[in-house]
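dumping this here so i dont lose it
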C-alpha cells in the first residue's frame, strides 16, 4: 500500500464524517482502493465515540478506527496513528480541512509515476479565513514556480530540494498538520531514537519531530494547490486563548532553538510570530477587560505562566511581563483603565467597537454556560484580528 491517510480528531463527529465521505468519493472516482487507506483515531470520551458505529453500518471500505491510549491526548493520538500506518507514506490530515476534488489523485499518482523516494513530501494549500474557497491563494510556497495545470495528467508538477533548503524557506508549512506526508518506516525509526524534550509543545507535537527529521533529508513539493487551510482566529476561553497563542509557540521556538539548533533564520521568523501572538493576547485581554470591566481572571493566567515556565531569558518573556503589568494597572486603576482603553479604541476601532464587545460578551457567556462548544462556536463568530 502506498499511502495511509491518518486523521486525528476530538469530539468532532460531523467534521470527520464529512471528510471521510469526501475522501471516499475521491477513492471511488479515481479507483484508488489498492493505493490507500483511511485511519481515524477519535481521541474523545466514550460518550462521543459514535463515528465508528455510523460508518460500520454503511460498510465504507478502506477505513479503520483506532481507540486512543490516553483519551484527550493529541500526542497519544498521533503516536497511535503512526504505529498503525501500513502505507509506504503516511499523510496526517486535519479533520476540519477541506481537500479539493483532485487531491488524492494528484498525491498518489505523483508519488507512483515519479517513483518519489524523498523522506518528506508536501504540497501547496490555499486559505483566507472566512473567504470563498479558492485554488489560487497559495499560503506557504509563493517562492516556488507556479503550478502548470495543463501538465496535471502527466503528474510531473513537482520540485525536489534538500531538507536544509526547505527549512530555510518553507519551514512554516510543517506547522500545518495537513501538509505533512512522510516515509512511514523511516519516520518511525527516527522517533524511536529521538526523544522529544520537555520544552516541546503538545500543540506542535508532529512538528517537534518532523522539523528535525527533515533537516538532513530530501523533500518533494507538489506544486498543485490541493487543500484549503481552515484555520481561523477561533474564540477560546481566556486560558485556552493563552495556551493556543502564547505558551505552545514560545515553548516550541525554544525547543527548536536550544535543543535542535535549527537555522537562526527560522528561529528569527518564529520569534516574530511569538511577538505578534503576545500582542494578540494583549488585545484579547483588553477586550475582555472592556467587556466585563474586570480582568482578574486574565491576571491569574499570566501569573500561572510565570510561576510554571522556566523560559525567562527570551525577549518574548519580557514583552509578556510588560503586558501583564499594563493589565494589572488597568485592573487596579480606573483612570488608567479609561486612558488605555481610549488609546486602544483609537488604534483599532473595529476590534474594540461596541458591536464587537457585545458579541464577545454574548458568545463568551454561551461558552461558559456550556450552551455551545468551541468547534461550533468558531462557525458563528470570530475576532477580526
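and the seq i came up w/
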Amino acid at each position: 500500500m502506498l499511502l495511509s491517510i491518518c486523521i486525528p480528531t476530538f469530539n468532532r463527529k460531523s467534521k470527520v464524517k464529512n471528510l471521510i465521505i469526501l475522501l471516499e468519493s475521491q477513492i471511488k472516482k479515481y479507483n484508488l482502493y489498492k493505493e490507500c487507506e483511511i485511519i481515524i483515531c477519535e481521541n474523545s470520551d466514550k460518550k462521543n465515540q459514535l463515528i465508528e458505529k455510523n460508518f460500520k453500518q454503511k460498510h465504507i471500505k478502506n477505513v479503520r478506527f483506532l481507540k486512543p491510549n490516553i483519551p484527550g491526548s493529541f500526542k497519544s493520538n498521533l503516536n497511535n496513528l503512526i504505529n498503525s500506518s501500513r502505507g509506504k507514506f503516511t499523510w496526517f490530515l486535519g479533520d476540519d480541512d477541506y481537500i479539493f476534488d483532485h487531491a488524492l489523485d494528484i498525491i498518489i499518482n505523483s508519488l507512483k509515476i515519479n517513483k518519489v523516494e524523498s523522506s518528506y513530501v508536501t504540497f501547496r494549500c490555499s486559505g483566507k479565513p472566512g473567504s470563498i474557497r479558492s485554488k489560487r491563494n497559495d499560503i506557504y510556497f509563493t517562492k516556488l514556480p507556479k503550478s502548470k495545470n495543463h501538465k496535471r495528467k502527466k503528474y510531473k508538477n513537482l520540485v525536489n530540494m534538500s531538507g536544509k533548503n526547505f527549512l530555510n524557506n518553507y519551514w512554516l508549512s510543517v506547522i500545518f498538520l495537513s501538509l505533512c506526508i512522510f516515509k512511514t518506516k523511516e519516520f518511525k525509526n527516527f522517533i524511536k531514537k529521538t526523544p522529544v524534550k520537555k520544552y516541546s509543545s503538545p500543540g506542535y507535537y508532529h512538528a517537534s519531530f518532523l522539523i528535525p527529521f527533515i533537516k538532513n533529508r530530501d523533500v518533494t513539493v507538489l506544486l498543485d494547490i490541493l487543500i484549503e487551510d481552515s484555520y481561523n482566529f477561533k474564540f477560546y476561553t481566556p486560558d485556552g486563548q493563552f495556551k493556543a497563542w502564547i505558551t505552545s509557540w514560545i515553548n516550541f521556538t525554544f525547543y527548536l532553538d536550544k535543543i535542535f539548533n535549527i537555522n537562526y533564520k527560522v528561529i528569527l521568523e518564529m520569534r516574530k510570530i511569538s511577538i505578534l501572538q503576545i500582542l494578540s493576547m494583549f488585545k484579547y485581554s483588553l477586550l475582555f477587560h472592556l467587556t466585563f470591566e474586570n480582568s482578574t481572571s486574565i491576571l491569574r493566567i499570566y501569573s500561572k505562566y510565570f510561576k510554571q515556565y522556566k523560559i525567562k531569558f527570551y525577549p518574548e518573556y519580557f514583552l509578556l511581563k510588560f503586558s501583564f503589568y499594563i493589565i494589572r494597572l488597568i485592573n487596579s486603576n480606573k483612570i488608567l483603565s479609561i486612558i488605555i482603553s481610549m488609546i486602544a479604541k483609537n488604534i483599532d476601532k473595529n476590534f474594540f467597537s461596541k458591536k464587537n464587545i457585545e458579541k464577545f460578551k454574548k458568545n463568551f457567556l454561551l461558552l461558559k454556560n456550556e450552551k455551545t462548544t468551541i468547534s461550533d462556536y468558531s462557525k458563528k463568530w470570530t475576532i477580526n484580528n
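The longest strand covers residues 218-228.
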